[in-house]
Amino acid sequence: xxxxxxxxxxxxLQESMYILRNARIxxxxxxxxxxxxxxxxxxxxxxxxxxxxPKKGSCIDVKGGFVIPPFFNSHTHLGDAxxxxxxxxxxxxxxxxxxxxKHRVRELPKGEVRRAIQGAKRHMLRTGTLAHCDFREGxxxxxxxxxxxxxxxxxxxxxxRPDGDPVDEVVRISDGLGFADVGxxxxxxxxxxxxxxxxxxxxxxxxxxxxxxxxETGKTEVQRALDLDPSFLVHGIWATREDYRTLARKRxxxxxxxxxxxxxxxxxxxxxxxxxxDVRFFLGTDNVMVCDPDMFSExxxxxxxxxxxxxxxxxxxxxxxxxxxxxxPAQFFHAEWGALEEGSAATFLVLRGGNLKGTLSxxxxxxxxxxxxxxxxxxxxxxxxxxxxxxxx
Length: 393
Description:
Blueprint: H1 3-13, E1 17-27, E2 32-41, E3 44-49, E4 58-61, E5 66-68, E6 71-77, H2 92-96, H3 110-126, E7 129-136, H4 139-147, E8 155-160, H5 167-173, E9 176-179, H6 182-186, E10 198-203, H7 207-217, H8 221-226, E11 232-235, H9 241-250, E12 254-256, H10 258-263, H11 271-276, E13 281-283, E14 286-287, H12 295-309, H13 315-324, H14 327-332, E15 348-351, H15 362-369, E16 375-380, E17 383-384
Parallel strand pairs: 1-4, 1-5, 6-7, 6-14, 7-8, 9-10, 10-11, 11-12, 12-13
Antiparallel strand pairs: 1-2, 2-3, 5-15, 15-16, 16-17
Helix pairs in contact: 4-5, 12-15, 13-15
């Protein structure tokens, strides 16, 4: 985009009322594609007009670009961004297990770790993510380190770990607790969290650990975790179908992290089974040592996994995957935005590019083809967010 065009469009987006003309908006929780003129007024989507654009109001032609809900990354470990590709040549326990590489972060200069976290957050914003949920190690110090780089977007939901500090203090300054495994969480089974605080943990990530749990306790890791009344769980690669049925019945969400699971040699999330059992699931990018926190890449990986396990997977399944990275976690974590419909907050991404045109399956096209290169604009309450230049991420 030439500079003059950019400044004209940016100026229009600052107005209290404007029209996105010729937009393919994904409407409502059903993500129904509609070629329409989207009228923004006072920070809300006032109308989704499938006719000719109104004569009043400034107009921007988005040329058939997609208007979609922003991304919500439901599982990150930003503190490990300072150890990029540290997983190479190592097994999962050697990378993130007890005494693994990730625990050396606490020995590094705090300024170096802080800069790496800030870079990861900029990368999330540059790739369309407005919020994330982080499992933060290092007790009070670790939480404060992440909070210290929390200015602007994306917003952070921080789940801490005691790691030697008083658990009450960790809970007070965080949004809850996020444990490495079920065994760690069981040590605090009698802890009562205040309203609005989350408790979560990794479960069934390693086959060996899952088998050991059944052998030693007679319960699966998911069964043990559910005894602790969690808000949501993470991974579930080796959970049983009965575990999935229980999660569905109790409406406990499960966060899948496809790329990190594969790169760490843990396995492949059973997305097909989650869909069959109607499990409420979200997507996360997991450890920044292993994967950039880029939800475009995570969506693409999830779509490939599903299609590999079920070649019949179509647009309906594609919608479920896109919802898991947008509307559903936003609802669960009480974000200020959600599905795009008349009367909702005008908080959305605009995706443009020739690679997204001529599609027979719009949502599958977004999963399969869209990248950060297609991110034309992020609007928050109708106003544009300035994205960090690529060289700053």
